[in-house]
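TEACHING EXERCISE
Course module: macromolecular assemblies
Task: Read the component lines below, then compare them to the predicted structure of the full complex.
Student: A.B.
Group: 4
Components provided:
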Amino acid sequence: MSVLQTSGLKKYYGTEPVVKAIDGVDFTVESGEFVSIVGSSGSGKSTLLHLLGGLDRPTEGAAWINGKAIFSMKDDELTIFRRRNIGFVFQSYNLVPVLNVEENILLPIALDGDKPDAAFIERVVETLGLSEKRTSMPNQLSGGQQQRVAIARALASKPAIILADEPTGNLDSKSGMDVIGLLKVSGEKFGQTIVLITHNPEIAQMADRTVRIEDGKIVGGAAR
Amino acid sequence: MIFGRRRRLLAKLDAMLDEALAGTFDAQNYDESLLSKIEAKTARFLDASRLRREQVEADRERVRALISDISHQTKTPLANVALYTQLLTEQDLTDGQKAIAGQIAAGAEKLNFLIQSLVKASRLESGILKIEPKPGNVYYLIESAANQCAALATAKNIALTAASGEPVTALFDPRWCAEALFNLIDNAVKYTPESGKVDVTVTEYEMFVRVDVTDTGRGIREEDLPKVFTRFWRAAESADSPGAGLGLYLAREIIAACGGYIKAGSEYGRGAVFSAFLSKV
Amino acid sequence: MNVSNRGIIRKLTARFLKAAKTRNVIAVVAITLTSVMFTSVFMIGGNMLAAIQDQTMRQVGTNAHGGLQYITAEQYENFSESPQIKDMSYTVILGVAENDALRKELHGVGYAEDAAAQWNFAFPSVGKMPRAANEIACGTITLDALGVPHEIGASVPLEFTVGGVKYAETFTLCGYFAGDRAMPAQQIWLSRSYVDSVLSESIVTDNFTGTINAYVWFGNAFDIEGKMRGLIAERGYSDGEIEYGVNWAYAANDISIDPTAAAIVALVLTLILLSGYLIIYSVFAISVTADIHFFGLLKTIGTTGKQIRRIVRGEALVLSAIGIPVGLLCGYFSGAALSALPLVILSVPGGDTNASPPVFVFAAVFSLLTVFIGCRKPARIAAQAVPVEAVKYSGALGSGKHKTKKTRKITPPAMAWAAVTRENRKFGITVLSLSLALILLNSAVSATKSFDPDAYLSGLLISDFAVADYSIFGNNRPKNTSGVTSDFLKEAAARGGEVSNIYYYDRDNSGETRAQVYGIGKTELANFSDIDYNALNAGNYAIVSKTVLHYDGAIQISEDSVSVPRIGDTVTLTNDKGGSREFEIIGLVDEYPHQLSVRFHFINSLDIAIADNAFIDFFGEQSPMQTNINVDAEDMPAFESWLADYTERRNADLSYISRNTLKDEFAGLTTMYLALGGSMSFILALIGVLNFVNTVAASVVARRREFAMLQSVGMTGRQLRQTLFFEGCCHAVPALIFTLTAGTGLGILIVRVIAGQAWFFKASFTVLPSVICAIPLFAICAAAPLVCYRYLARESLIERLRIE
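Instructor-supplied answer key:
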């Protein structure tokens, strides 16, 4: 079953000259897959991830998450859809600075007014080695730890898909390996579908499948 | 009033779905209400999907059993082939005959190795063998794995160095992880030409303990890197080397079952690094 | 049916609040100041209204909503059963005091229930109401007139007539209260038992002696007239059977307020609202912009725009919950301090400065309104945070259109100007906020300057002193129009006073007054006409005013109307003896001067001035209404102290106004305007500066990376400080320019509205205060960025460069 599917996705900027950030991408992610998208900077991979996450709207084309055409939704609908179906991990962690670790993790669930699955959260927190940091504030954590909180937050709401945008970009290689390893390990452990964006082939190879993007087009790897 | 009732009803439905997701759903009310009807239908729907799931599960189980049976049933004949080949070579044979008997012996051994790996893999996958990670000193693990490869390394005149030092704790199953690590080191020794080097080093991370097995073999092409851990995969150049393409696959499965992961890095022509990341928590 | 996620929104709100401490302090101070201003203004306004109402009530004689007059005890019983009536009490009328000492004024004698006495402003403040037959309670005015000391137990002689029988008895004082000359009558209370015994032994012939005056309160003061009619009908009486009165002090509740007052109120409220809006908007806009990254993040995670708006509004609400109560409290004190002043303008005797619950409710509502209007746009900005933008947001970039600019020389002032105008809206708001205070200050000072002391003095006085019966200068009726005694005139002349008299006559045989005739001397004539006194004095000549009071207000007779007197016409005057005489009109004036008049007008009557000699000759010898006295400068203090003593001790009915007292009054008046305007300007200035400091601090903090970058490419700290200094000036200079240009127009308008209706107003406008204030303004504007920068410079360059 495919969790994510795009068809003829295009994102152009400007008029003259037109910048084709994404130029006709057809792409499918199956349930439980860990897919990495590699490409050099400026290849359009971040734009693609933003489109996949419904953070931005395409010039043309469509994307379905769990069979739902996301771009046909209104902004607030899309926001609510996002908090129920998509988890994000960004390069710059993007934790809410005024909330502690546990609150950050539970935020998407709380925003949906749901009771968190305590046992599940417990496992996530433990897997990511955050048991002792529950009450810490983000600014008390190292970059690697902050990114782990971000991963826990993405996992917490059991989304259909997690989109990770250069999650190790701001980290030294040691913390980077830690973080990417945890993403992989927890993805497997919790059967989570993950799309990872990176320019680093070493990190990309940890995925089940690698898709290469260049100049807004998929040029290598199995796009399926 | 009506508002409150609607909210209660929706809350009830929400709770039902939560139970369904957790797999504990059971129809509770049997009355004339619509809610009861919905409950019953939900239960029926869940039953149907459970049956389907069980069907798939059973199919898979049959396949596993088959593999297990085949490997079990071939064990005795294979042992016999090996035994009689041994007996045969002790006879007075011509050089030509000896060479043929040697081929048979090698084939039997290869087949035996394959079957044993298959058995392990299938037991691992079917969960017959439980991998139980517990905290332990990584250096002990490395030592026991490296010791098993020492003979082959000495035979190929390869310098095998295993790191040691202050105890480093990680979570692993001593028996299985030693096997996994053995597979990595054995793999490195196999693909390293005579007089090469194989190093086993340890790096401690916040969340993982990384064990690197570095060799001076020819390495792996970048496009092959993602494939090295897949079942029965072997590089085109290695067709002549002994092995079944199951070792790295097994290693990955074992390490993953311990909450860790494996990655490979290489620059083609300059050797390869296989890294096992053992979880610390 | 929504999912219940208010909890997390509340939590986020609380956390965001906790994180922005500096912002909170500024916002709370801003909200507090806003509500201080609202509270003060509502309190001052409320007290002014209350004071005017109180004064009117005293003129009416009671604060009760209405009265039923001359009713019987049975009727009273009947009325008291009505469910419409909230409260009711009564007095019993016995008659009027006939002591010689009390003849000058009306002194009612009767019995009153305690409540009725209170509602008549005649309840003993010392002692108690009479209970025993020989007890009496009255006002201090009565006691003074009788020469009785203010002591409980003093003997009070009283004479009155009931049913043709004259009573002259002596009572014992059991209680007294402060009398008020503004009241239509002074009250003398006797005990019930005494009043009953007198009534029982006399045969009453008129239809009010011994009757009951009932005072009535309804649930509210709207349409009292209708309620009274309804009440009478309800109790089964026909139209006209019962006499009733309506307290017109409450009429203000029915009719609309006059447009000038409404304009002042609207202007002041708008001003406060505007200044409050400006700072609250800018505080929230800045904090929201700084946090836009996180709002975008929240949106990425799945917070909807509505929820984000709720967070911002929630923050504002919490800050209001702190700021508004504090503001109400502070506003109460400053309102109490300033309340006394406006009463001076209205020459209303000081009412109590108190604040009723509605004042606080209105102030709180308006403050809250200001806060909500102020944070509406910022909330929208936050709600519209675009997730992707948020992820890479970095300050001013991306906002606004990027027009291509030609390359200019890079100098600190040029860079400062570019930086300041990068965000036009913020810049405009800061400048406007700073200007408001300056404009108001200019207006306040100009308003005071617009009060012409000469106009004020000559409008009230044409000589050094004016002496008349106290009823002439006050609002009292009836007026004693021949109150200046010959004894006084003799003594004044003896003391070197140069005396000039005004005589007055308005009786008419027809029963309707056609003319108010003044007999004037040389000094008076010179004040309002060019005509030579000798010409007027030469015979039967008159000067007539063209302004006539009609039912719908004063109008000036048009020149060519047929009925208008013209020069050369004659007017015929009649006197008490039935004689009549023709006077030839030799002059017309627009208006007979108020300060020489009896201080009221009859409807449709002409003001006619004739020479004093002709007046005496025709109307007969009488005492003057008013005497204007000039004395030599060196004799002035001695004369004034004699006058003060004379009018207080020798003849309390006479009162005087002098140039000196008027000057003091005028100074008090202008001081009050200055104090009021000054304190408002001060608060506005505080808000303006707060706004400015907040803007600057936020911009410096937001641009610290930019500064670090500039320094890393070789800008020295000195150059940077210079740039920041110029940035401050870039706010001060436009603020000053705005104040001096558009602000002047606005200021002139404000002056017209707040002071223009004063009769001694002479339009003038000064910008001097703003120019003087420019010095501290520049100091603050220049210092604030530097202080912010120094604070910033404590971090090393590398640290600042690293900030994401």
